[in-house]
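Closing statement on the nicotinamide-adenine-dinucleotide sub-project.
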Amino acid sequence: MTESQTMGVFGAGWVGLVTGGCFAELGHHVIVRDVVPDRIAALQAGRLPFHEPDLPEVLARNHERIRYTLDAGELVDADALFVCVQTPPTYSGDADLSFVWSALDDLPRGERRQILVMKSTVPVGTGEKVRAALEARGLTNVGYVSNPEFLAEGTAVRDFMNPDRIVIGAADPQDAAFVEALYSGIETPIVQTDVASAEMIKLAANAFLSTRISFINEIANVCELVGADVESVAQGVGLDHRLGPHFFRAGVGWGGSCFGKDVSALKQLAGNSGYHFQLLAAVIEVNELQKRRVIAKLEKHLGKLRGKTIAVLGLAFKPNTDDLRDAPSLVISSRLLAEGAAVRTWDPVADARERLRGATQCDTVLDAVRDADAAVIVTEWDELRGLASEEVRAAMARPLIIDGRNLLDPGAARRAGFAYEGVGRQSSAFETLPETAEPEERVSS
Ligand SMILES: NC(=O)c1ccc[n+]([C@@H]2O[C@H](COP(=O)([O-])OP(=O)(O)OC[C@H]3O[C@@H](n4cnc5c(N)ncnc54)[C@H](O)[C@@H]3O)[C@@H](O)[C@H]2O)c1
């Protein structure tokens, strides 16, 4: 039986709200503090500020144990203070810790001992700096634990409640035991270690997941040249129990708020410490090029893209989220616009109107593909599984599908009358496709 504690959470983003909601589900009392008034007002009114399956239900079910505030002073009686603020990249690729420092500035000064728990992803060595900063502020009764978070957007609640492991890094074993007890009710291996190792576990995990994706993408690119099918290759390789099938799907590359910044932060951390992390440099470069290969594939079929209309299907960096941070769709769409193409986008939940000002965001897939010279699948939304339909073919100016997620059956797409090009799969013949209307007509329609 969980002993109920009171905890404060800094940050009402993906990690903060999932952490708060799930700890409330485990029986704790939670106060979530953010600095954005609209965000707190929305939460107080029962509205989630972003799309995340199951989270609205968890927050509603536990509303009596969760409150939301702008006032950090309300966290003064909390037993643990979870830091879940953003740590975006700086121009140099290092992690920007300014939001972490601002949370430290806001720590309430109380009489009781509190434990500061770092869930934000931070560079190795941050724990040491935070401890020094706490001492410099005279907050000697505040303990420190690193407890990195491994949830994935789209499945965040499930991931939090059923994690593969919980990592707890602490200098003081009592602080570690306290944080471990907060999770009682969740059955999973606990990795207890020092703070620096806990910080490194998170960075290394994300770097390795990204490496797997860049690796299979490189295999896919070679498959295209030598006539192999990466889907079969990935299946055959992934069934090896030493390797496993996860994060081994070829596509247009990884995105999201974490991989890019964490891989870059680890590379910079190594560089700042005097070590050139060659492998990660390649992992990042492969990912950048992978997004751009879509443009080359379109040009192979359509020639110059100026004046062509391209439907970009799926904007979120992955399905079941509306998160656009570092989404491949933004790079692909921006490249298309730079080439002079007209870009029509569609996504069931993400809104990219602000970020892609030159593109037209459509409400339906059919609207997006109407009069298009090609449709590019960028996010593997279920709604796109039926894309190779008669209705879509009739709506398009040219029946070309570039499947950036290998979502469709190539044979079925071709039988339905489409020229089809996936990633690491045999492509349709390289002929320039016939046009069914004048380009000018289509651009203006
Ligand atoms: N999103 C993920 O999938 C994920 C998964 C694992 C780890 N992480 C890490 O967790 C951290 C948070 O990520 P996120 O996606 O939840 O970020 P987010 O941008 O969605 O949310 C951060 C929130 O913190 C708030 N904030 C900033 N300064 C604050 C302060 N002083 N006090 C209170 N609130 C403050 C912001 O207003 C924002 O609402 C990052 O370090 C990220 O790398 C994220």
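The radius of gyration is 24 Å. With this model delivered, the sub-project is considered complete and its resources will be redirected to Aim 3.
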